[in-house]
Amino acid sequence: MFENREEAALQLASPLKIRKLKDPLVLGIPRGGVVTAAILARELGGELDVVLSRKLRAPYQPELAIGAIGEDGEVYLSPFARAVPGVNEEYIRKERDHQIAEIERRRKLFRAVKPAADVSGRSVVVTDDGIATGSTMLAALHVLNARKPNEIIVAVPVAPPDTLEKIRPMCSHVECLLAPAYFAAISQFYSDFRQIEDEEVVLLLRGEQPPHEAVKARAQT
């Protein structure tokens, strides 16, 4: 159990520090993953940025991911996707269009603060506050592999073992602190799993502390 995203990221940074990284770039999947990424970037002396990918939601079960879409607009469907009731070509098209619109909204917001970092030839650490089905992370990895990084390291505090096995072929290394056999939701492994808003992501990309973190830092001095 982690206290919060910040504490999980500090634990995650320890094994990464012993790796020889080439011009490290830490990419967080918004929104929660950017909190993790900001800590890792600071601890590893790397550059912070975001990678924009979105899960495709199942009809009637929006928390269930049937796949994902990356910044390049390519759709990646889970093997079980077409067996889910209500999933057909029309549904996939509508869901794709909806998520593309959200990616574009976030791209305009976040890229106004931080232009996309160059990936080519660098050690790229891709992180989130946890992985469930892995669809969103896989979409991000498809996009990043096409940009010719030196290596891709997927670093997350927690993920189920079967999801980690799906991810390993898409990256150079996986660093995961917890891989429990019983996995219901990422939130079950955090005492504090508060909602992260766009405004906090913008502050982190600017290199600023969100208000609640600034208050916490003053209290510790």
The geometry reads as globular
How many domains make up the 3D coordinates? Answer: 1
How far from one another are the termini? 27 Å
CATH topology: Rossmann fold
Low-pLDDT segments, ≥5 res: 217-221
| Strand composition percent | 15-25%
- Separate helix tally: 7
Task: Give me the CATH architecture, please.
Answer: 3-Layer(aba) Sandwich
Average of per-residue pLDDT values: 92
* Largest sheet report: 5 strands, parallel
Which CATH class applies here? Alpha Beta
Rg from alpha-carbon coordinates: 17 Å
Strand order of the largest sheet: 2-1-6-7-8
Total E-strand runs: 8
SSE topology string: HEHEEEEHEHEHEHH
Helix content: 25-40%
Account of the protein in words:
This protein has 221 residues and is of the alpha/beta class. It has one domain: Rossmann fold. It is 38% helix and 20% strand. It has helices spanning 5-17, 32-44, 89-111, 135-145, 161-167, 198-205, 211-219; strands at 25-28, 47-50, 54-58, 61-69, 75-77, 123-127, 151-158, 173-178. A 5-stranded parallel β-sheet has the order 2-1-6-7-8, sandwiched between helices. A 3-stranded antiparallel β-sheet has the order 3-4-5, with helices on both faces. A hairpin with a 2-residue loop joins strand 3 (54-58) and strand 4 (61-69). Helix 1 (5-17) packs parallel to helix 2. The longest helix is centred in the middle third of the chain and has 23 residues, at 89-111. The relative contact order is 0.19.
